[in-house]
Specification:
Length: 185
């Protein structure tokens, strides 16, 4: 996973996270579908390759195309990937534990928080507002900034790709930071 050479996070961000009282209770709710798409884990190609290295699984065994496809002018495409699910749960959830904890994607590392243009948003989570915080707010803040940077870099790669490559017609493809990839499921 890219590290971006970042070692300190803005104190205001750290403070806001600390004040949220977040302590993960390992309830597994964020890895389980509560409403359609609620536990979708969007991942970039580098994140999938990290899980491949850690688990020995293939790309296709880990992820599938982001399900909201775009159809226009004979083209059929989507942007990026999501981790497979089985019975409405992430395939890496076992007994409410993440079996790829060391290699888990940014979205999982930073849940329930997300930075959008440096604004902090918080998703519903059973671990918020605890009296004693067991998580490290500085580490979460650093991971949030790294995640935002990773997502920006991936978007920029895709933007540049689409300036030079044409999306083909008649075949389903997935567009990610590595290229335009045919996908046959
Ligand atoms: S992050 Fe929140 S929802 Fe997810 S397992 Fe921890 S407490 Fe549960
Ligand atoms: S990768 Fe791990 S933390 Fe992320 S949704 Fe799957 S089981 Fe949960």
């Amino acid at each position: 996973m890219p590290e971006f050479g970042l070692t300190t996070a803005p104190p205001t961000l750290v403070r806001t996270i600390r004040e949220s009282g977040f302590s993960c209770t390992c309830c597994g709710a964020c890895c389980t579908e509560s409403e359609p798409g609620s536990n979708r884990v969007m991942v970039g190609p580098e994140e999938i390759r990290q899980i491949m290295d850690g688990t020995g699984l293939s790309f296709e065994e880990i992820a599938e195309p982001y399900p909201e496809r775009i159809h226009d002018d004979g083209r059929d495409y989507t942007f990026g990937w999501v981790i497979h699910q089985k019975e409405n749960k992430c395939i890496f959830l076992s007994k409410n534990r993440c079996t790829i904890y060391e290699f888990r994607p940014w979205i999982c590392r930073t849940y329930p928080f997300v930075l959008d243009n440096n604004q902090l948003h918080t998703h519903p989570c059973n671990g918020l507002h605890k009296k004693q915080m067991t998580e490290n707010p500085h580490q979460i803040a650093l991971d949030l900034i790294k995640r935002q940077e990773y997502e920006h870099q991936d978007e920029e790669k895709i933007r540049k790709l689409l300036m030079t490559k044409t999306i083909p017609t008649g075949i389903p493809v997935v567009i990610d930071g590595e290229g335009i990839k045919e996908y046959h499921g």
